[in-house]
UniProtKB/TrEMBL annotation:
Name of protein: Succinylglutamate desuccinylase/Aspartoacylase catalytic domain-containing protein
InterPro entries linked: AstE_AspA_cat, N-alpha-Ac-DABA_deacetylase
Keyword Hydrolase: yes
Domain Succinylglutamate desuccinylase/Aspartoacylase catalytic: 31-112
Keywords: Hydrolase, Metal-binding, Zinc
GO molecular function: hydrolase activity, acting on ester bonds; metal ion binding
Cofactor section: Zn(2+)
Superkingdom: Bacteria
PANTHER family: BLL3975 PROTEIN
Keyword Manganese attributed: no
Length: 377
């Protein structure tokens, strides 16, 4: 299968050079679902690029008959963020123009003032696939109003232009997968919306975070939130529908590196997910034990995050991936002072039992800096 490669201009720099994004579109013999997959939205989170590269190499070896539907891949999807540096380090989490997190800028149909309740009432008697098609078209029509703004140059800012280009590739998809990593050192896990729990197992990851608090500004949220809103409105009318529309953020290990194990887990999980959803007919997938695999999901508001109570240098007594117990020593902070006293060592103990899934790369901390995250057991 040969992909259709499209190059989309994003921004011309002061030097005259230009930045682009490039998509790789694989189209199967028969029509079906569309999956959209992107990586490296945050500049330091590079493992997903290796996953997409591997998927491209793999899909090229397949016959068109082995794909039903469409797979659209966009690696290094945020060139400005990817190229950004502080010293040698990729900082690229925030847009330097306006300080906004690159993953909190996206267009959410629900926030346009759309009357989703009215839509549900007007269309509740249609078949599920008809409701889905009509609602999708309604979202797309509204989204393309943005295009008018984009075309009315110079009336557009870069963040508006950029989000339009990315979401334009993704909004008509059935499944959206956004590949991230931690900015720190972290395990592999995913973010899961309510009602998608069963599908989450197909990624074959051990842990995940169940979203219970979100505003629709992140890429996965902006895609999914309007569909969840429609499901809620239909449920109020006694019509319990779950649309076959899903959105995922998959966190592949640590930032600033392409850890081979995280990359392998990413590839295996995505192949398994796509085979489970019927897009790919490939050897060995879905893996036999998929029906028995259970991801452990922790509600987002139950995650325990430790912030440093003092400024100084950290020495850890625990490791990433370790199960910890209440009152166990987690780390010490070496703090110097300017009041004529000797330096102090302060000990920090666990507030409860759980799994360390995320831990700071930088062992030098200012007071209140993030130190580590725990999924309670
Ligand atoms: Zn990220």
């Amino acid at each position: 299968m040969i992909p259709n490669i499209s190059t989309i201009p994003l921004i011309q720099l002061a030097s005259g050079d230009q930045l682009f994004i490039q998509s790789y579109q694989f189209t199967g013999e028969n029509p079906g679902k569309k999956v959209y997959l992107q990586s490296n939205l945050h500049g330091a989170e590079i493992s997903g690029n290796a996953v997409i590269q591997d998927l491209i190499n793999f899909l090229i070896t397949l016959d068109k008959t082995q794909l039903t539907g469409e797979i659209l891949l966009v690696p290094v999807c945020n060139p400005l963020g990817v190229n950004q540096r502080s010293h040698y380090f990729s900082s690229g989490r925030y847009n330097l123009y306006d300080g906004k997190d690159w993953n909190r800028i996206f267009w959410d149909y629900e926030k346009t003032g759309a009357n989703i309740s009215q839509f549900a009432q007007d269309n509740q008697d249609l078949e599920q696939n008809e409701i889905q098609a009509k609602y999708r078209q309604t979202i797309l029509n509204q989204f393309h109003q943005l295009a008018k703004l984009i075309r009315s140059y110079p009336g557009v800012s870069y963040d508006n232009y950029y989000r339009y280009q990315l979401q334009n590739l993704a909004l008509d998809a059935d499944y959206v997968i956004d590949l991230h990593s931690s900015t720190n050192n972290a395990l592999d896990y995913l973010y899961c919306f309510h009602s998608q729990e069963a599908s989450a197992n197909a990624f074959l990851l051990d842990t995940g975070i169940l979203m219970n608090d979100y505003d629709g500004d992140a890429f996965d949220e902006a895609f999914m939130k309007p569909w969840l809103a429609l499901e809620r409105e239909l449920a109020k009318l006694g019509k319990n529908i779950r649309f076959e529309i899903e959105s995922w953020t998959v966190e592949l290990g640590s930032g600033l590196e392409m850890n081979p194990e995280s990359v392998q887990k990413g590839i295996r999980g995505i192949k398994n997910y796509l085979a489970t959803k019927g897009l790919l007919s490939i050897k060995d997938f879905p893996v036999d034990f998929t029906p028995n695999h259970r991801i452990h999901l922790t509600p987002k508001d139950k995650i325990q995050r430790y912030y440093s109570p003092a400024g100084g240098m950290i020495k850890f007594y625990v490791k990433l991936g370790e199960t910890i117990y209440k009152n166990q020593k987690l780390y010490t902070i070496l703090s110097f002072n300017k009041i004529g006293e000797l330096p102090q060592i302060r000990e920090i103990f666990a507030e409860g039992d759980g799994l360390i899934f995320d831990i700071t790369k930088n062992h030098s901390v200012n007071q209140w800096d993030y130190v580590l995250g725990v999924m309670p057991s």
